[in-house]
């Protein structure tokens, strides 16, 4: 089995980081929806149920903060990977790449910078 090219490694890295960012954004959306639902519920509950709901709300708020904290370092990693990919595309090695590889790399760069 041949070793993957530097371009394949860079493209794979950017693709993985974009997917990871999408996954965390989806998780944040789900967490915020659960929090809104739990905060809007609760009329006519007994003390034990209210205590459980309040604990769940507190835990969900903590989870939301932890998820939000991931975005800064993840964005830094993504931008670093994009910079490496851009360097690779601007190097002499880029002349040896197929048009499809170059187009895929540029598409990923645009997606990463748009996010």
Helix content: over 70%
Number of helices: 3
Judged by helices, strands and strand pairing, the structural class is: mainly alpha
Which regions contain 5 or more consecutive residues with pLDDT less than 50?
none
Q: What percentage of the residues does DSSP assign to strands (E)?
A: under 5%
Outline the biggest β-sheet: none
Q: What coarse outline follows from CA principal-axis ratios? A: rod-shaped
N-C termini distance: 35 Å
Multimerization status: single chain
**What is the arithmetic mean of pLDDT?**
90
Summarize the helix and strand pattern as letters: HHH
SSE topology:
Elements: H1 6-40, H2 47-90, H3 99-114
Sum up the structure in keywords.
single chain; 3 helices; rod-shaped; 115 residues; mainly alpha
What can you see in these coordinates?
By secondary structure, the protein is an all-alpha fold. It is built from three helices and no strands. Helix 1 runs antiparallel to helix 2, helix 1 runs parallel beside helix 3 and helix 2 packs across helix 3. The protein is rod-shaped. It starts with 5 loop residues before the first helix and ends with a helix. 10% of the residues are buried. The model has no long low-confidence stretch (mean pLDDT 90).
